[in-house]
Amino acid sequence: MLQTTIITTKSFPRIAYKKQGSGPAVMLIHGFPASGILWDGVVPGLTQYFTVLVPDIPGSGESLPGNEAVSMDALSAIVPAILDDAGFEYCVLAGHSMGGYLALAAAALFPERLKGLSLVHSTAKADDEEKREKRRKSIELIRKGGKEPFIRGMVPGLFSDAFRKIHSEAVGRWIGEGMKLTPEAMIAFYTAMLERPDRQDVVRNAPFPVQWIAGKDDALIPWQSVLSQATRADISAVSLYKECGHMAMVEKNEKLTADLRNFASHCLNSRILEVATT
Ligand code: MLT
Description:
The chain is built from twelve helices and eight strands. The chain has helices at residues 72-75, 78-86, 98-109, 129-143, 147-154, 161-166, 168-179, 183-195, 200-204, 223-229, 248-251, 253-268; strands spanning 4-7, 15-21, 25-29, 51-55, 91-96, 114-120, 210-215, 236-241. Strands 1-2-4-3-5-6-7-8 form an eight-stranded mixed sheet, sandwiched between helices. α3 links the parallel β5 and β6. α4 packs antiparallel against α8 (183-195). The longest helix is centred in the last third of the chain and has 16 residues, at 253-268. D-malate binds at residues 31-32, 97-98, 193, 220, 246.
């Protein structure tokens, strides 16, 4: 069985991460409401070429919450901590949605530890006031004991209509995964997302290539907004997936794996022969 490594830092009593494969490092940061297992369908397609590091963000999966108030900046400290522990100077860092917000914070604070940044259904923009208000209402609902209706209301909307209709078991599975988060962790993550700063300058000044993956049917992160940000870095890679919502690692697993593999290989100068998958 795959071993989980546990590390402790001053701020985080227990950071759990999985390490698989060999070669230069690629780290995959999951979104909300999930844990590192979100990437399970992607990891096997990367391990032949890369050492794949998959943490559970503190407060999710097997990682405990941190000791201090949760912010994306504070959470991003797990990136250098895991790289140090695993013996890597740098990695290609990929983040899904909230994981992308964390990855952007890491790119701002520890740019020397990144050789590439991949934003999967994510955005460098801060929340606008409408989104903030929605988050405040969700926080209120969770605080009053409404974790289950919140998750049951939210998770189906992460998938495209087409996917949801024929894969109700997958939607059910991710509702179940979401329910594993404690109400306290959900509130902490929502607060950190609500308060996160705009990071468009990080993308604009990125000293490494930036990849953008957008879903044509993503109801959370509209593809138009992604495309408007996607040409700002000196080197950008952009993929727009048709018939895909907010969950390419589930909905378009092979395509996302191939795109991540190609991007990481470009950033890390590793030579791999790519067989196109669509
Ligand atoms: C996620 O998918 O990680 C979050 O739902 C993103 C968000 O709420 O902004």
